[in-house]
């Protein structure tokens, strides 16, 4: 089921960068997502859950810049990605238990990536097909925003994986709203870097994953904890003191994310 684990990661990474249509555009502010429920039946894995439950993902944005901050394991791991919405220039800072690395992608490099990814679908090489359906009769209010249910329909492309998944009680659902919209410039820059977007058309304020493969079962729920309608300009001034600059490839290898 290794491909299934990769599937989950991709869903969460892409969900925050999809093309969002909205009734009211929030062009400046912040959204903080946190883990509200985390359970697993495996005793060894369960013993490690407390350090993950405090993990958060925060997006600060205005019309000029966007900052994604992922804070994990009670601050032991922290990743910040700063994007210039107009030039697509990007700075990534990774602090993995005191090992600090930094990588910069210039406007020129971003433009090259845009050309290389033109008309490319980021899910084309994914090991699954993904579709999303909506149940607008299933609603809930999250931090004052009316949301309705979105169901992720996933089918592995590999025949063997598809047969295995048929034996697993597995689901991904979300509650999405039309009330919030990322700045269009930021969305465009992500789409230019990654290729075509997937099919989630509204802003997710809650995600839930459930699985039961007969041996292990668990549940993960992430939900918006705080939404602000303004952000200080100083938020986008990163302190890079003590960070070692390197290429994105070398950074991933050093921090154990290389393949």
Tell me about this structure.
A 12-stranded mixed sheet has the order 7-8-9-10-11-1-2-3-4-5-6-12. With 259 residues, it is α+β, with helices and mostly antiparallel strands. Mean pLDDT is 77; it is low at 1-24. The protein contains 7 helices and 12 strands. It has helices at residues 2-15, 43-46, 49-53, 107-116, 159-166, 184-194, 248-254, and strands at 29-40, 56-61, 65-72, 77-84, 90-96, 99-105, 128-142, 145-156, 169-177, 203-212, 217-228, 244-245. The protein starts with a helix and ends in a 5-residue tail after the last helix. The chain has one domain (2-254). The relative contact order is 0.23. It is globular.
Write the layout of secondary structure elements.
Layout: H1 2-15, E1 29-40, H2 43-46, H3 49-53, E2 56-61, E3 65-72, E4 77-84, E5 90-96, E6 99-105, H4 107-116, E7 128-142, E8 145-156, H5 159-166, E9 169-177, H6 184-194, E10 203-212, E11 217-228, E12 244-245, H7 248-254
Parallel strand pairs: 6-12
Antiparallel strand pairs: 1-2, 1-11, 2-3, 3-4, 4-5, 5-6, 7-8, 8-9, 9-10, 10-11
Radius of gyration: 19 Å
List the domain count as a whole number.
1
Question: What oligomeric state best describes the polypeptide chains here?
Answer: single chain
Class from secondary-structure proportions: alpha+beta
Task: Name the helicity range.
Answer: 10-25%
* SSE sequence, one letter per element: HEHHEEEEEHEEHEHEEEH
β-strand amount: 35-45%
Mean pLDDT: 77
Which stretches are poorly predicted, pLDDT < 50 over at least 5 residues?
Answer: 1-24
Shape: globular
